[in-house]
Amino acid sequence: MMNLTDISGGDASKYRLIGDRVLAYRFAVPHDAELYLGDVLKITDSVKGLTFFAKVNDLLHDCNFADPKWDTRPHTEHFYGIGEDVFILVEAMPLGYVGGDGAFRKPRTLPAKFSRVERPEARDFAFLSQVMGEIEVGVMKTGQGVLKDVRVALHAQVMRQHMGVFATTGMGKSNFMKVFCASCMQAREFGLLIVDPHGEYVAGGRSSSGEATMGLLHYQAGRDGLAVFSTRSEDYRRRYHLDQLYLDYDDFRAPDLLLLYEHSPPQREVVEMLESTPGSDVIDFFQSTDFATFDAGTYTGRHPRIANDLKNFSPSTLSVMQRRIAGMMNRNRGFFRRQGSSIPDILKALHENKVVLIDIPGMSEQSELFVLSIITRKIMRSHQGEEAGGEGEPRQVLITIEEAQRVLGSGSGSTRTFREAAMEGRKFGVGLCVVTQQPKNIDARVLAQLNTFVVMGLSDRGDRDTIASSAKQDLSRLDTEIQTLEAGEAVISTIGIPFPVSTRIHLFEEYIADLNRRPAATPIDDGLEKGF
Fold first, then answer.
1. For residues 257 and 272, is the Cβ–Cβ distance under 8 A?
2. Confidence band (pLDDT; 50, 70, 90) for 524?
3. What's the predicted TM-score (pTM) here?
4. CB 54 within 8 A of CB 94
5. What is the C-alpha separation between 154 and 495, in angstroms, rounded?
6. Contacting residues for 68 by C-beta, under 8 A, at least 6 apart
7. Of the N and C termini of the chain, which has fewer Cβ atoms inside 10 Å?
8. Are 433 and 452 in contact (CB under 8 A)?
């Protein structure tokens, strides 16, 4: 009979490193130890004088018994007691180590055998404060808890190298984006463009669970870092000091139609033929021409060049394009007009490193993409012009694309503007913030351009595999943790922070309350009517 006694907390065989790989640690802990996926642990190597850090990525029951079926035999408890030979085997992913100089390095060496494993304290992560950036988003998470003194903040200078935010519905994507916006308003390190067709970013709205939320206007201490261009009523705009959004005919280019409609090959040829033609000329030509009698040879209207370019197209193709242009104008008539555009003011605000919010509540998905396409093209052309002028480092802008699979999906040929920004934008100071619930539907070539990944809960294995294969840091061994993330939690992989950081994202309402209490804050209702 084998009746073993329970282990004591001082058992020398537990909490000691027994792994044998530089990129995978193993150690045993008592059978009743309370450890969780994602726990960050400290490994003290007294032989080399180094302190290693590792993240728990799997937990298994194990034992030292030779009988592999000991725990399913009849009367197991009579013959086997739960003692020192029964334990939890922990598998952990090395994060790196800190040497005597206090610098953090990647895990290119092993801790000595049987090095002591223990829980770190906040002061053990002092090195992280040296590698964090300016754009704060949350606090470091470890297992079920957080290290409230370890703030997680992204680096502003890497935003031109594109960011991806991946989250299933209800996992806190909108809250993250508002926290990100508030930090950008505070830091003023680059311009951030975000188009909001739901009207939730200005003064708040409802979360996916139906709870009331605040908006960016509630962050009054950072109000100088926000510019809002809105299609709302004059009374609303005056109440909250918002600018009116206008685009004019010359902002438009024929390829913008590719986002709004499915096109046949001849129709696509018409678009390509007119790509460089000013939008006002294209609109005037199609508004003033009767294609039932159109003949380029006898055309006497105001646009003979366009008529000559389109002389080989059938009247039916041109009539379809005419109806589509008319539909585009009618759908966007609330902000699309012959002359007078907000684009110069939008560019000015972005180049002043403000958050620029395009507030178009109630507008269709087509209108959202229409606005975003035009502004993105204008930003790219402006920055390409700066590059050609050789005036030093280009100004930095980050463009947010919500539901990005609509325009950056694999096989889509109608999104030239966004693909150009994804592939070439970084050298002109233009980055994309790609937000999606379905990363597997984003073109792999676009994902490969992203250098910052904010991964919230993703239940679909295909999505998680896509993320793991595209991230610059190894996320494959964090698959189980990502699958079990709760709302408001994320794994963040970015340049400048030496390992993927599990993060508890700030709750937006609490975060802006904290920001508003910091020095130089103005009253939350300053400049606004009472109530939202």
1. no
2. very low
3. 0.87
4. yes
5. 8
6. none
7. N
8. no
